[in-house]
Amino acid sequence: MTRIHCRAGQVLTLIGLMLAALVAQADMVVRVTEGADRRMPIAVVPFGTNHSRDAPEDLDSIIRDDLTMSGDLKTLEPSRMLSLPTSGDDIHFRDWRVLGQQFVLVGEVDFDAERNRYILSYELFDVSQQERLLGSRASAAPSELRTLAHHVSNRIYERVTGIPGIFNTRLAFVTRTGSGNDVEYRLKVSDVDGYRDQVLLRSSEPILSPEWSPDGKELVYASFEGGRPAIYRQVVSSGERRRIAHFRGLNSAPDWSPDGESLLLTLSKDGSADIYEMPLDTLEPRRLTRHYSINTEPSWSPDGERFAFTSDRSGNPQVYIQSLGGDPERLTFEGNYNAHPIYGPEGEEIFYIHQADGRFLLGSVDLETGEERVLAGSEIDEAPAMAPNGRLVLYVTNAGGRQGALEMTTVDGNARFTLPVRHDGIRDPAWSPLAE
Amino acid sequence: MTDLLKNRVLMLGFALLFVAGCSSTATEPEGSGSNGMDETDMEQQSDSDADSSDAYGAGDGSGVSEEDMTSEERARKSLEQAKEKAMQAASTIYFDFDSSEIRRESQSILEAHAAYLAEDGDASVVLEGHTDQRGSREYNMALGERRAESVARFLRVNDVSEDQIETVSYGEEQPAVEGNSEEAWAENRRVEINYE
Amino acid sequence: MRSLLKAGLILAVVGASPAIAQNEGEAPLVSGNNPERSGGNSAGELFFLVEELRAEVQHLRGQLEETSHQVKRLRQQARERYIDLDERLVDLDSRLSDLEESPEKTRSGENTSDSAEESSNSGSSGESTSYRQPDEAEREAYASIQYLIQEEQDYEAAIDEIYSFLEEYPEGDLSVNAYYWLGEVYLSQGKHEQAQQAFTIVTSRHASHRKAPDALFKLAVAHDRAGDGEQARSILDRLGERYPESEAAALGREYRNEMG
């Protein structure tokens, strides 16, 4: 505390901020539920403030939540910090070494009344090298402070791990609320931490399977409005939308190709549920699988040359892989129910829902070795979604009374987190691509 | 042997239920008496429904002077009977987990519907496939479709025209019974036969 | 027309019903079957028959997929075990020769005549260049491997062929060649670890074979491609020392220069 040699008023504000942070953390902290701890410790010191107007968002606390959620970093509780520096000159590296910290982030928030913008100056230090890794200034309008915090989280995460950060990406998901005749489905998008959600579509009929376009500007989804399923594409920013598939029978499980030119989807217009590729210009589907069993849930490989899918051609659902012009090859052999495959971003691993002892868990298979394993110890029973940087898998869990909680696991299964925000009746999460 | 006996008992049971005004047809569950009755009971009951058609006709009290009817009247009569029989038959078919195989016990129900639809070319049905809430949502969507398609195929091989049948799958989206129990799941794995 | 079809259906059902009866134990669907009813609705019967057959085919398909998966895995494991065993043999060999060498050194000061005798012995055993010469069938088998590699470029098939060749004709002149080619094929597939193992078998167990210098060179290449430049350099140095006049040594010097 002695190192904070600034105006007395500022110290008070700082303490106030700390208190605010602590109170907020009681109900919004990202919870790590388990895992072997290989995470790097980082201290995000509560930011100082140089103005009389309090920022409407708690920037350092958002950044702490982000970094914790990454699965690669472990943040220090502000209450355990020995000093609260707000700039690099004030840092006593010994304090942070004592606390076993590898990195320290300090910063100060300013308000530019003329431009109505908050300005965050921040610096990131390596504790053992006593070296400044980042020093920068970023600003945002008061309504965009969460974006600002996520942006800084990205910079820090990328600098420390060398992996692109996902904190400015978005989620799309569906909620189902009410019951009987009052059921309401909503298609929503939100920040990656579940905050700032917006409704894109409301319907009394089911909405399913939203998927992002590779440029992150549009969604495709299935909607039952009018009593029959159809596939729609919708521009997220404007809400403008178009019905693009409305065939007899199933219109389901769309997946946007990596080049953005076509969809894989499941149709049953020719009798059985099969997978089709549909170019978005002609909208004429071409059949890719041909079997009287169920073939659905296609997922493009990142190179766009093949796809994984679920088929019960062997009597129960298993994951298969097929090149666009080739024959299917079975991937999963453990258990009687392996469904909804999604490709890892490098195309080297596939994740899916695996049933064991009556519970549904997250499974993965290594495409090189064929090794199958079960990841999270949590019940998922819902489609998983892959983080665009390949580090996390997101899914909905209803286990342990956590109705509609969004949970994430690192791809190695070492750490799991529950996201702070709940959405009643949440299902079908989809993760946007990395922002340009 | 025991099967035969069981059938008899069930038929008797059915007759009693029938008297009590049992017609638990249409889109029923939620509040209706289905709670106390497990799903196999319901189906066996409807099974015997078709078998006991004589008893039904007798209760109707209209089959007295058949000889006097014109052939036209007879045709109309048989159509009506087929219709009533179809309506009387249960309109929900149940399935095992992750299966779209029609159980043998559902055969007579479906035959009653098929007989009517084959008779009355103007009637048409929508077959709604549903699944329980377990497992993958999109896979369930396809499973519901295949259940409906199974029923449609059965109707088609029994002389029902393609144009009279429409299938739609709601997957796990519209459970008949909310809840997370074996009983609720069993009631949700179904195809509903709805006349338009 | 329709009645004709129906008659056909009934016939089909009648013909098939014994099959249904036989299957009863396995297919629960049939157990509730009532024989009196089966004549009643032939279309329905046929429907159930087809459903059952479909389910049965799916079931069999599943078993086939699982069995072939197991076979694939077993083959892979057999291969791995073979390499592992070979490695252990190589290891044992080198330990044995170490054991033979070390007592001779400790004794060298005491009894020169003995040590001279022993060293000449060990020298001759190391130099024993008489490999079993192949017969016609072995030559043919070897030629077919060469064909697979050089003409067909079917490396997977070639690997299988090499392993069965090694099993059939062990410890011959051509089997050393076969190990060398195994290394080449693995190297071309980017399986550096396996390539290293195959080349090592040639360089350590058959150091006097004519393929040994080439194998040593390729061993260095395999290490280099696997990202271990240091190891690659030391192997190339050894190549120059051990086989200074060989073509491989010349190639090795060139390669080393390029590595920098």
Automatic annotation (TrEMBL), chain A:
<feature type="signal peptide">
    <location>
        <begin position="1"/>
        <end position="26"/>
    </location>
</feature>
<protein>
    <recommendedName>
        <fullName>Tol-Pal system protein TolB</fullName>
    </recommendedName>
</protein>
<comment type="subunit">
    <text>The Tol-Pal system is composed of five core proteins: the inner membrane proteins TolA, TolQ and TolR, the periplasmic protein TolB and the outer membrane protein Pal. They form a network linking the inner and outer membranes and the peptidoglycan layer.</text>
</comment>
<dbReference type="InterPro" id="IPR011042">
    <property type="entry name" value="6-blade_b-propeller_TolB-like"/>
</dbReference>
<keyword id="KW-0574">Periplasm</keyword>
<feature type="domain" description="TolB N-terminal">
    <location>
        <begin position="29"/>
        <end position="133"/>
    </location>
</feature>
<dbReference type="GO" id="GO:0042597">
    <property type="term" value="C:periplasmic space"/>
</dbReference>
<dbReference type="Pfam" id="PF07676">
    <property type="entry name" value="PD40"/>
</dbReference>
<dbReference type="InterPro" id="IPR011659">
    <property type="entry name" value="WD40"/>
</dbReference>
<dbReference type="Pfam" id="PF04052">
    <property type="entry name" value="TolB_N"/>
</dbReference>
<keyword id="KW-0132">Cell division</keyword>
<dbReference type="InterPro" id="IPR014167">
    <property type="entry name" value="Tol-Pal_TolB"/>
</dbReference>
<comment type="function">
    <text>Part of the Tol-Pal system, which plays a role in outer membrane invagination during cell division and is important for maintaining outer membrane integrity.</text>
</comment>
<dbReference type="GO" id="GO:0051301">
    <property type="term" value="P:cell division"/>
</dbReference>
<dbReference type="GO" id="GO:0017038">
    <property type="term" value="P:protein import"/>
</dbReference>
<dbReference type="InterPro" id="IPR007195">
    <property type="entry name" value="TolB_N"/>
</dbReference>
<keyword id="KW-0732">Signal</keyword>
<keyword id="KW-0131">Cell cycle</keyword>
<comment type="similarity">
    <text>Belongs to the TolB family.</text>
</comment>
From TrEMBL, chain C:
<comment type="function">
    <text>Mediates coordination of peptidoglycan synthesis and outer membrane constriction during cell division.</text>
</comment>
<feature type="domain" description="YbgF trimerisation">
    <location>
        <begin position="50"/>
        <end position="93"/>
    </location>
</feature>
<feature type="region of interest" description="Disordered">
    <location>
        <begin position="94"/>
        <end position="137"/>
    </location>
</feature>
<dbReference type="GO" id="GO:0043093">
    <property type="term" value="P:FtsZ-dependent cytokinesis"/>
</dbReference>
<dbReference type="InterPro" id="IPR032519">
    <property type="entry name" value="YbgF_tri"/>
</dbReference>
<feature type="signal peptide">
    <location>
        <begin position="1"/>
        <end position="21"/>
    </location>
</feature>
<keyword id="KW-0802">TPR repeat</keyword>
<dbReference type="Pfam" id="PF13432">
    <property type="entry name" value="TPR_16"/>
</dbReference>
<dbReference type="InterPro" id="IPR019734">
    <property type="entry name" value="TPR_rpt"/>
</dbReference>
<dbReference type="InterPro" id="IPR011990">
    <property type="entry name" value="TPR-like_helical_dom_sf"/>
</dbReference>
<keyword id="KW-0131">Cell cycle</keyword>
<keyword id="KW-0574">Periplasm</keyword>
<dbReference type="InterPro" id="IPR014162">
    <property type="entry name" value="CpoB_C"/>
</dbReference>
<dbReference type="InterPro" id="IPR034706">
    <property type="entry name" value="CpoB"/>
</dbReference>
<dbReference type="GO" id="GO:0070206">
    <property type="term" value="P:protein trimerization"/>
</dbReference>
<dbReference type="GO" id="GO:0030288">
    <property type="term" value="C:outer membrane-bounded periplasmic space"/>
</dbReference>
<feature type="compositionally biased region" description="Low complexity">
    <location>
        <begin position="110"/>
        <end position="130"/>
    </location>
</feature>
<feature type="repeat" description="TPR">
    <location>
        <begin position="176"/>
        <end position="209"/>
    </location>
</feature>
<keyword id="KW-0732">Signal</keyword>
<comment type="similarity">
    <text>Belongs to the CpoB family.</text>
</comment>
<feature type="compositionally biased region" description="Basic and acidic residues">
    <location>
        <begin position="94"/>
        <end position="108"/>
    </location>
</feature>
<keyword id="KW-0132">Cell division</keyword>
